[in-house]
Design a protein that fits this description.
The complex is a heterotrimer of chains A (549), B (437) and C (347). Among the domains of chain A are: 148 residues, no CATH class; 148 residues, no CATH class. Chain A is 53% helix and 4% strand. Chain A has a two-stranded antiparallel ribbon. Chain A starts with 8 loop residues before the first helix and ends with a strand. In chain B, a hairpin with a 2-residue loop joins strand 15 and strand 16. Chain B folds into two domains: 370 residues, Alkaline Phosphatase, subunit A (3-Layer(aba) Sandwich), CATH 3.40.720.10; 45 residues. The radius of gyration of chain B is 22 Å and the shape is globular. By secondary structure, chain C is mainly beta. In chain C, strands 4-3-2-1-28-27 form a six-stranded antiparallel β-sheet, with no helix packed on it. Chain C has a four-stranded antiparallel β-sheet with strand order 5-6-7-8, with no helix packed on it. A four-stranded antiparallel β-sheet of chain C has the order 9-10-11-12, with no helix packed on it. The chains are: A mainly alpha (549), B alpha/beta (437), C mainly beta (347). At the B-C interface, helix 13 of B face strand 1 and strand 18 of C.
Chain lengths: 549, 437, 347
């Protein structure tokens, strides 16, 4: 067990306490380790709902469910054939088999890849190689722990792992960026406040932790050739708020520290090493850096993966995955996982953590478990009396805005000729089509704001859709492969309206909706083509397409 | 009474408020106004201009993002170890001295009040921005609205043809902290947020669609969207609808953002900087009836080279603000426009090794000019080195109470969120009467 | 010569709560005159066991004393108050005060013959004065008052050539002018825009500038010191930077950037042989960095205990006096007397 300095005893105690309390007095309440994930989720979520005596929404209907789960697993709305296929099926197992089909489809890998890319790269410096690395990792269902290790320690001489280092490479210009982003993204801890002073509210994070964390990255640098390397030595010093100068120890978030074995480096050797580093940073032709005998980043990875202690890595990825699918994390906000901000369902998070650890950080398994739960499948419409229950109870599904990629892909699917998407496309063919859709969608996706913590749709988006020529070009063309092209071939007005509605909204139109659309078209007989475009526009700009409900 | 109000019943009060096309979905009434919608230039329409000028109040916040130094602006400490190298100068009001870096403002102290005794305690950019936007610490349950949203709601018109809350934030640093927070007032009161360009994009309809169809298409969208909201009353869902409902009104206000509409001589007085130009646009906007404009000038966070940075940024602030006040005054707008300089906090009296100053919220300054303000007044004192407030300590709620009072808004008024009353400012906030006219 | 930068060792430190911007050393002694952020001029004897600063008398300055020059029989100081003050060095009394500049004075430099003094300020002019009479001889106008981005500029650095016939001035945007001291005529100009960082996108202001200039002893080279490109301009988070020019040919020989020693190069001084030079400065901390002139290679680099604003060598270049943020530090650059004789820096 790594040494804990006295300042971290608070954190260790808090986490140990939560485990002890869980195990001891309330042993009966904790589901066994071999229960299916979705049952455990419902056990805890329903349990809290019942204890608080709160109403919950009913389960979403088939139309809603198949759309939601397709968006969440495939990253796009379902095709008309997929929706109707699901709704019309009388198979009792259709939910499970659809989920498994989606998880096995090529779409899942692309969507999971896009979600991870957004989290890891925050929009900066994402390249084709990097996206390909993530795609392959997701296809293999590579354990998250392994991906973390690759991103931290990937070797430059291994073509796959070399790309994984992009995570650090785009941040290598600033030790602070490497520190803060690694901490936030992998561990759910926004530690940057602790740089200038001990965190005013959260006792867990002090300057020692910030600079301790920084120390692991302080020797990392980028050569002119673009390889990531580590220096042979170097200390991090900082000034406390009292103005005292301190040298930082290598310290992880748990408070565990690492001592560097004392190294005999003569002044000359030090100078030589420094000169080599300088040369590598300046000259592309400089000889390749040699790995140092002591690598702070390797030690960091060891500490981060010492699961038994305080499984930050596991808890954070579980929290993020939960937030993505359920609309809000068990700990909220996602980068405030500390003792002053407890989870809404602490025992559930603990159980899911133990489960993830004992199944080698299998993310696909976790996703599957969540989407199989009743909690996930609730309706997002609150039909009860008074105010809806608090979001953190997960008693009503949270309406989530589509990500830029989901929206762009869904707009593409919605405005394609439905006959382009029969049900019997082979997996290889679909993979190719999906790849091409991904590339096509990237341009439009860049125009849509990525949802953040307090996201609201801005008027800029409405102006884009209302007035920008790209909308007509991308979504309202009338060639044969497009929706409008296919609508023009349908004689019967009612049928045409229904086809359009299924394609965009994944459901049949209600009577008054169809009537309004019919009236709109009738009033514009002499400019029927324009009217049709406007009709489709009025659907693709609707909230139904915009949100995952 | 101008002659061109023949379309209305004739009474001036109804002349403007009948233009309820925003939000109303019927194609018929919209069509009547569709023809003049896009050529509508609020500034040129005498009825509108007259109505707008009468009694309507506005706010322009010059948001000194990153935290400007009070010691290099409103509260110099000459001769003290913390004072820095710049000296104070006499202003046009005897007994008041400010930094020599603001000479033009010094000549115009007659319209400006300074509060030197702000102690807001929050020293990080995100927390400080939030505090100085909301006027209070965030509530764990209720999503509070920022000043711009409150002012847009209280002073704006429900049927406004112009945006009612505009924010300029062209730099990337700290932009996330300036993102609008309409809170429970809803997305309707979120700001039009301008970043790369000072003119919003996509304000003109494609030539391939007629005016009427553009409107009717939107109305159909609205109709089809109605089912969705039943039982789904989250802010984010409402924001989607709200965004589309505002499109027509915003399209009509495009010209307001175009500085080329101003005579070259006027543009020249504001100078060549981006901040100066945005101040000019702010004047155009409030002149057209926009109640709240925030001009974000990033980035004052001078942890190193504080004096060099303030030499540049204070020159920009001094010139732009002085020109803006002159311009507002000349147009008779200053008495109804409140111009504020604010930031998330001030800067440390202590000077570090890079000749920088760090974050400091224990004793810092804001300025207030124009509407409802007693020009030439100073409230509050800091100690001789500027480390603590010596007299007249106030916090953000008190400042906001003062601001709302200056605007004629009842700061003790409540909004109702379910069963819970939410006053505009925290209970117990005290108005600083000394700076009010 | 026994002066050897590779033997650099700090021998003494003296702390103060003030920032010391400028200094001169009295020839043949360890006595320093320095200008302080407390607006005063001081003398201090660094040879003393416990050095005690002695303040000058008189009305003095009304802001930071940023320039100190030791002329023929007086000390000339310059300040952010725009004034130059002449002092009697012995009596430490003010003898003359001149409202020299419309804006903040950045430095005061004395010609080698001690008969001429130049002051530079943010009014972007350099003024050449008779050191004895205080008469204004020339006003050198060339540096632009505004940066290309429409903000007021700053004039940070100046130096005389070893024979005093030339004068170089350097500003915020990287513009260097070389003048004829006697006539005040412009001889030539050089550009070092790498010293100026303008950030249009993130923070929308500038930082940096050439802070120091120095001629080589043979007069052929001009070194300029400042800071390289900075990403986050809230801090001096950029590499210290020196550019060495063959100024007559208008050619840049070296661009020396050091990411380990971040911050401004506040002063540069060549060894009398011309074979090496010292660049010193800092950010939150400080550094002293010795470079070989011909190759541009670093000979010796050390962290200083404070951001160094100015320094001076003794006649033998074996002792170095540095002043800066809150401290004076004295260093030796030679082998100890009783140690083995080390080979000096290779030619």
């Amino acid at each position: 067990m790594p040494t804990c300095c006295f300042k971290s005893s608070f954190i260790c105690a808090a986490l140990l306490l939560s485990l002890v309390v869980t195990q001891a007095g309330l042993a009966a309440d904790v589901p066994a380790a071999d229960r299916p994930i979705h049952e455990v989720i419902d056990h805890f979520v329903d349990g809290r709902i019942e204890r608080l005596n709160v109403e919950s929404a009913k389960q979403a209907d088939d139309l809603t469910f198949v759309r939601r789960v397709t968006l969440d697993l495939a990253g796009r709305i379902p095709t008309t054939a997929e929706v109707r296929g699901y709704v019309d099926s009388s198979d009792g197992e259709k939910k499970d088999s659809t989920i498994d089909r989606l998880l096995a489809s090529p779409d899942f890998a692309y969507h999971q890849r896009n979600e991870l890319d957004a989290v890891l790269m925050l929009g900066m410096g994402t390249t084709n190689e990097w996206r390909q690395y993530l795609l392959e990792a997701v296809r293999e269902n590579r354990p998250w722990k392994q991906m973390f290790r690759e991103m931290m320690l990937g070797r430059e001489d291994d073509p796959t792992h070399k790309t994984a280092l992009s995570f650090l490479k785009v941040r290598a210009g600033s030790v602070d960026d490497m520190t803060n982003d690694s901490s936030r993204i992998f561990f759910g801890v926004a530690i940057n406040c602790a740089k200038c002073h001990d965190h005013p509210l959260v006792l867990d994070w002090q300057q020692d932790h910030y600079f301790g964390f920084t120390s692991f990255f302080s020797r990392t640098y980028l050569t002119k050739k673009g390889t990531l390397a580590e220096k042979h030595g170097g200390e991090v010093k900082f000034k406390t708020t009292e103005g005292k100068e301190k040298q930082a120890k290598f310290m992880f978030l748990t408070g565990a520290t690492i001592e560097e074995p004392p190294v005999e480096r003569s002044a000359d050797q030090r100078k030589k090493d420094d000169a080599e580093v300088k040369l590598q940073m300046k000259d592309e032709k400089a000889p390749a850096p040699k790995a140092p005998t002591f690598s702070p980043r390797s030690e960091f990875v060891k500490l981060a993966m010492a699961d038994s202690d305080a499984p930050f890595l596991a808890r954070s990825i579980i929290n993020r995955t939960w937030a993505r699918l359920m609309g809000q994390g068990l700990v909220h906000p996602l980068d405030q996982m500390h003792s002053e901000n407890p989870p809404s369902h602490p025992k559930l998070l603990d159980w899911l953590t133990r489960d993830l650890l004992s199944h080698n950080y299998d993310l696909r398994r976790l996703v599957r478990g969540i989407v199989l739960s009743n909690a996930y499948a609730r309706s997002s419409r609150w039909e009860g009396e008074g105010e809806p229950p608090l979001a953190e109870l997960f008693a009503v599904a949270i309406v989530r805005p589509l990500t830029p990629e989901q929206y762009a892909l869904s707009l593409h699917v919605a405005t394609s000729n439905p006959e382009n998407f029969p049900l019997d496309v082979s997996s290889e063919d679909w993979a190719k089509r999906r790849e091409s859709m991904e590339n096509g969608a990237r341009g439009f996706a860049s125009k849509i704001e990525r949802p953040s913590e307090h996201f609201l749709v801005s008027v800029d988006e409405a102006l884009l859709f209302s007035n920008n020529e790209q909308i007509e070009r991308d979504f309202l063309r009338d060639s044969g492969d497009r929706l409008i092209g296919s609508l023009k071939t349908i004689e019967n007005r009612q049928q045409m309206i229904e086809t359009a509605f299924w394609a965009v909204n994944s459901r049949p139109p209600a009577a008054e909706e169809a009537a309004a659309m019919d009236a709109y078209l009738s009033a514009r007989k002499e400019r029927a083509d324009e009217a049709l475009k406007q009709l489709v526009w009025s659907m693709i700009t609707g909230p139904e397409l915009r949100f995952n409900y | 009474m101008p002659k061109n109000n023949q379309n209305f019943c004739g009474s001036p009060e109804h002349g403007v408020s009948r233009r309820g096309f925003l939000g109303a979905a019927t194609a018929a009434s919209a069509a009547t106004f569709a023809a003049d919608m896009t050529v509508l230039d609020a500034l040129k329409n005498p009825v509108l201009a007259g109505e707008l000028k009468k009694q309507q109040k506005h706010v322009i916040v010059l948001w000194l993002a990153g935290g400007a130094s009070q010691l290099e602006t409103w509260d110099p400490k000459p001769g003290r170890p913390t004072g820095g190298p710049f000296r104070p100068i006499q202003t046009s009001v005897s007994g008041i001295e400010i930094s020599e870096l603001l000479p033009k403002m010094a000549a115009r102290m007659g319209d400006t009040a300074i509060i030197r005794s702000l102690n807001t305690r929050i020293g990080d950019h995100g927390g400080g921005s939030r505090l100085m936007s909301l006027g209070r610490r965030p509530d764990p349950v209720v999503n509070l609205p920022e000043m711009g949203a409150v002012v847009a709601r209280e002073l704006g018109r429900a049927d406004s043809q112009v945006p009612d809350f505009v924010t300029f934030y062209s730099s990337t640093e700290g932009r996330g902290n300036a993102v609008g927070m309409p809170g429970f007032l809803g997305a309707r009161y979120a700001p039009m947020f301008l970043t790369e360009n000072s003119v919003p994009n996509n304000l003109r309809a494609q030539k391939t669609i007629t005016e009427v169809d553009h409107q009717d298409r939107a109305a159909l969208r609205q109709l089809l969207a109605q089912r969705f909201s039943r039982g789904r009353n989250s802010g984010i869902v409402a924001s989607h609808n709200s965004a589309y409902q505002r499109v027509r009104g915003l399209m009509a206000s495009e010209k307001l953002f175009d500085v080329a509409q101003e005579p070259a001589a006027v543009r020249a007085t504001y100078g060549p900087t981006q901040f100066g130009e945005q101040c000019l646009i702010a004047r155009r906007l409030i002149e057209a009836g926009v109640p709240f404009v925030k001009v974000g000038r990033a980035w004052w966070d001078s942890h190193g080279q504080n004096f060099e940075t303030h030499q540049e940024l204070c020159a920009d602030l001094d010139h732009s603000m002085a020109t803006l006040l002159d311009d507002l005054k000349q147009r008779g707008l200053l008495e109804n426009t409140l111009v504020l300089t604010m930031a998330e906090f001030g800067r440390t009296p202590n000077i570090n090794g890079s000749l920088g100053r760090d974050h400091f919220a224990n004793a810092w300054s804001v300025s207030l000019s124009g509407c409802g303000i007693k020009g030439g007044s100073v409230y509050g004192k800091t100690d001789e080195n500027g480390n603590t407030v010596a007299d007249g300590q106030i916090d953000a709620p008190d400042l906001f109470a003062t601001i709302y009072k200056a605007l004629g808004i009842d700061h003790e008024k409540h909004y109702q969120i379910g069963a819970r009353p939410i006053p505009l400012v925290d209970f117990g906030a005290k108005v600083v009467k000394e700076v009010l006219a | 010569m026994t002066s050897d930068p590779s033997k650099l060792k700090k021998t003494k430190e003296w702390s103060t709560s003030n920032i010391l911007f400028s200094m001169e050393r009295v020839a043949g002694t360890s006595r320093l005159f320095f200008g302080s952020s407390d607006f005063k001029m001081y003398e201090i004897d660094m040879a003393a066991e416990k050095p005690e600063p002695v303040a000058f008398n008189g009305e003095g300055h009304q802001s930071y004393v940023t320039g100190v020059g030791l002329a023929a029989d007086s000390i000339v100081s310059g300040s952010y108050d725009g004034r130059l003050i002449w002092w009697n060095a012995e009596k430490k009394e003010q003898t003359r005060a001149v409202d020299a500049h419309a804006k903040w004075i950045r430095g005061v430099f004395v010609a080698p013959d001690k008969q001429t003094v130049v002051s530079i300020a943010d009014d972007m002019v350099a003024k050449v004065w008779d050191a004895q009479s205080g008469e204004l001889k020339h006003t050198l106008v060339d540096h632009k008052p505004m940066t290309p981005h429409h903000y007021p500029s700053m004039l940070y650095g100046a130096t005389f050539s070893p024979d005093g016939k030339l004068l170089a001035t350097a500003d915020k945007v990287g513009h260097i002018v070389i003048w004829e001291t006697d006539s005040g005529k412009k001889v030539t100009e050089l550009e070092a825009p790498g010293m100026y960082t303008w950030d249009p996108k993130q923070r929308r202001h500038s930082i940096g500038g050439i802070r120091s200039v120095a001629f080589s002893p043979d007069g052929k080279l001009l070194a300029a010191g400042g800071i390289g490109k900075i990403g986050n301009i809230d801090h001096l988070g950029g590499p210290s930077r020196v550019e060495v020019f063959d100024w007559k040919a208008g050619k840049r020989l070296h661009t020396l950037e050091d990411n380990k020693l971040k911050g401004l190069v506040e002063q540069i001084c060549f060894h009398e042989s011309g074979k090496w030079f010292l660049a010193a400065g800092g950010d939150h901390g400080g550094f002293v960095s010795f470079y070989e002139t011909a190759s541009g290679k670093a000979i010796k680099q050390e962290k200083a205990p404070m951001h160094v604003h100015e320094f001076a060598f003794d006649e033998s270049y074996e002792t170095l006096y540095t002043v800066g943020h809150g401290k004076i530090a004295v260093w030796e650059l030679r082998e100890k007397e009783d140690g083995p004789v080390e080979a000096p820096v290779p030619a």
